[in-house]
Every structure is written in structure tokens, then in C-alpha cells.
Amino acid sequence: MDTRFTTAQVNTIRSMIGNVLGFWRDHYQQVDEQGSSRYQSYVNKYAKFNLAPDWFEEKLANGRAVASVQMDGFTTQIAANGFNRTAKAYIMYEKSDSNFIVKGVNASNPETNSLSVTINATTISKTTIGTTNKVGALQHAWLHREGYRHPAGKYTSYFAG
Asked: Do the beta carbons of residue 117 and residue 135 sit within 8 Å?
């Protein structure tokens, strides 16, 4: 993590990471215990486009399938990061007046791309931005690192947004 972040910002970032990893864990635990997860149900409810990462060759028929592919890709990213098969993930610092919370540069291979992101130090310090938005911004950035893109002609979709 960039050393320019304050202690409070580092704590916020760690909490954001912990929450995203918690959703990941909950997804698999619920699938194991119940056959499906709340995350799959949520994505199935809101998915509006063929939301496959650029490395996935098939069409995805529904949000439940989208959620499963996304979480499996995220598992691959976590393993690649944990076993040093990717460059070390780095949380980069940017101080900006723009509204972004977290940025993830587009990547295309969860086997080889790190979980590195850039976090806006100004925005994560704002108390007017809730935890849910901050956590969602990190997950969104990691979706870009996993190989997801915005649908053509649209900035956001319910899945990525």
C-alpha cells in the first residue's frame, strides 16, 4: 500500500478489502450450503446485458451464471496473487478532486493480472460517502482487473455498477 495514505485511510481501505473478501466467502459458503447465493440472486435480478469477462468465450444466459463466472474468476485472481503468479498487488495513491473512489485499469487474464488499484485519498476520507459505496467501488475496480468491461455505449450496468 502506498505510504502516503493516512492511518485512517489505511484502515478504511483494509475494511473495504475485508468486506469484498467477505462477500466472496459468503457466496461460496451459501452455494455450498444452499445451492445458490444471495449474490447470485442479486446479479440475476439486475443483470441486463451479456456480462461476460473478455476472456470468457461463451454467452451467459442469466445473472446467476454471470455471478458464478465472476466469483470463479475472482478466486483465480486471489490465488494468482497469493501464490505470486502475478505482480504483487499494490494500492496506489491519488489525491484528486474528481468523484472516483477506486480505479482499476482494464486487464484481461485473472491468471496473470494483479489486484492493483488506485484509490482516491480525497474521496475515501469523505464521511458523506458510505461504506457500501466504497466497498462497491473496490469490487467494481477488481471486476475491471478481472476482465469485465462496461457494455458498449454505456458507462455503467447494474452488474458492474
From this structure: no
